[in-house]
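Contributing new records

If you add data, match the layout below exactly. Sequence lines come first and carry their own label; structure lines follow with theirs. Keep one chain per record. Anything else will be rejected by the validation script.
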Amino acid sequence: MAGTDLITSVKGWINKISEVAVSLIALAVVLQVLFGSDLIFLPVDVIGNITGLVSSLGSQGLVGLVALGVIYWIFTKKD
């Protein structure tokens, strides 16, 4: 039983961390749209990285579509 509780606890932590990460990505996109890519405290081109990922998946044909489906499933899966 203790092992099951530990696994449930770790899954909960991972879920909360991924929720925070997605929220931070959304905040970074909004900040980059509002202020441009010259933000001192955000040295990463978030929109460029997302655009690159989408174009990379799009150029892969069926494999990219399957990968996109898997990513969507991971982020929308409810326990």
